[in-house]
């Protein structure tokens, strides 16, 4: 496509809707050619951030800088970004090819040229043979790919995706997810993908930006954020962690790092409350003093070498380097 990635920088970006502060002075640098996921619970400010980057929402304060140029006040089509809208935003009365070519029509590109470019885009998303169909003659996954081709035809340096997989069934979601990742790698541009699904973010992202209450709580590679959550919120939101209160403060310990020993041994005494067999693993929950519950995800062979049952007193333990102090 000839498009090369550019840096995207958010500088003190703020969004206010009346009294509501939806995005509170966030700063972030997205490196070129990155698959980034904005991850967080509903209402934390992800979509507002994305819409401000796209230019579909004004910035209340701060600036959006793409490749060294402040684009904060440029219209969406002039920014070098494109937004992939949900597939239901396709025009029902236009063919697949015409849907994909639509933004070029708006720009005054003549018909042969825009249909040629649409053809290239359809090839990219593997839909060439369906160019003459209408949206209601396509499956959900195919509609999604049309929406993707429609966004990419403007040759953006940054593609913005707002919950692009949420309308798909679980099987299709996982397939589309790997297609998105493959496409991002092939194009070499940045994708910024909004999701509230931690599994989606972990699977896709080179970089995860975790948002909570209008601010960025933590950003880093998927593995760094998962392995070393900085706050209890991040540990709980990413899942797979215990947040444990110790006299020196709260720590995060991955569930698969917790081991059970005999009563009187280990770091803390506990009593087993539930045992769930999950095939490759057994999920054992134990209550410790102060109503805390700790989950241990034990490989099945380890569990069955010494099965323990609800009501049994045990000791819980983990390696020192598996314990991450959390900021209050
Ligand atoms: P997310 O994408 O993380 O769910 P949003 O960016 O959509 O979060 O919303 C962040 C906050 O801003 C929420 O409190 C939401 O209710 C509010 N909000 C979003 N859009 C508008 C709007 N157009 N008018 C008023 N408040 C809004």
TrEMBL record:
Record lineage: Bacteria, Pseudomonadati, Pseudomonadota, Alphaproteobacteria, Rhodobacterales
Origin superkingdom: Bacteria
An individual GO BP term: quaternary ammonium group transport
GO cellular component, one term: ATP-binding cassette (ABC) transporter complex
Domain named ABC transporter: residues: 8-238
Alphabetized InterPro entries for the sequence: AAA+_ATPase (IPR003593), ABC_SmlMolc_Importer (IPR050093), ABC_transporter-like_ATP-bd (IPR003439), ABC_transporter-like_CS (IPR017871), Mo/tungstate-bd_C_term_dom (IPR008995), P-loop_NTPase (IPR027417), Transp-assoc_OB_typ2 (IPR013611)
Protein name: ABC spermidine/putrescine transporter, ATPase subunit
SUPFAM superfamilies: MOP-like (SSF50331), P-loop containing nucleoside triphosphate hydrolases (SSF52540)
Molecular function, one GO term: ATP binding
Organism: Sagittula stellata (strain ATCC 700073 / DSM 11524 / E-37)
Keywords from the UniProt entry: ATP-binding, Nucleotide-binding, Transport
């Amino acid at each position: 496509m000839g498009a090369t990635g550019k840096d995207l920088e958010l500088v003190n970006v703020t969004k206010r809707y009346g009294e509501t502060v939806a995005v509170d002075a966030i700063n972030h640098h997205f490196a070129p050619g990155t698959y980034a996921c904005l991850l967080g619970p509903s209402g934390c400010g992800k979509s507002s951030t994305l819409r401000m980057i796209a230019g579909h929402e004004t910035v209340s304060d701060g600036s959006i800088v793409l490749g060294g140029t402040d684009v904060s006040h440029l219209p969406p089509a002039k920014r070098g970004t494109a937004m992939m809208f949900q597939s239901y935003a396709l025009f029902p009365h236009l063919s697949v090819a015409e849907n994909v070519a639509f933004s070029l029509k708006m720009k005054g590109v003549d018909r042969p040229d825009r249909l040629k470019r649409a053809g290239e885009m359809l090839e990219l998303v593997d839909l060439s043979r369906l160019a003459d169909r209408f949206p209601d003659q396509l499956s959900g996954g195919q509609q999604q790919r049309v929406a993707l081709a429609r966004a990419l035809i403007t040759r953006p340096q940054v593609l913005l995706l707002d919950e692009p997989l949420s309308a798909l069934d679980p099987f299709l979601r996982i397939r589309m997810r790997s297609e998105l990742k493959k496409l991002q790698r092939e194009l070499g541009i940045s994708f910024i993908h909004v999701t509230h699904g931690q599994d989606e973010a972990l699977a896709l992202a080179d970089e995860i930006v975790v948002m909570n209450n209008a601010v960025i709580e933590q950003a880093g590679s998927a593995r760094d954020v998962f392995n070393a959550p900085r706050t209890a919120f991040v540990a709980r939101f990413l899942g797979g962690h215990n947040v444990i209160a110790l006299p020196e403060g709260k720590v995060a310990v991955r569930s698969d790092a917790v081991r059970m020993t005999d009563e009187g041994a280990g770091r803390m005494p506990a009593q087993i409350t539930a045992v769930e067999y999950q095939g490759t693993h057994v999920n054992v929950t134990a209550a410790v003093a102060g109503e805390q519950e700790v989950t241990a995800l034990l490989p099945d062979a380890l569990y069955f070498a010494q099965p323990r049952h609800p009501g049994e007193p045990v000791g819980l333990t983990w390696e020192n380097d598996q314990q991450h102090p959390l900021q209050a």
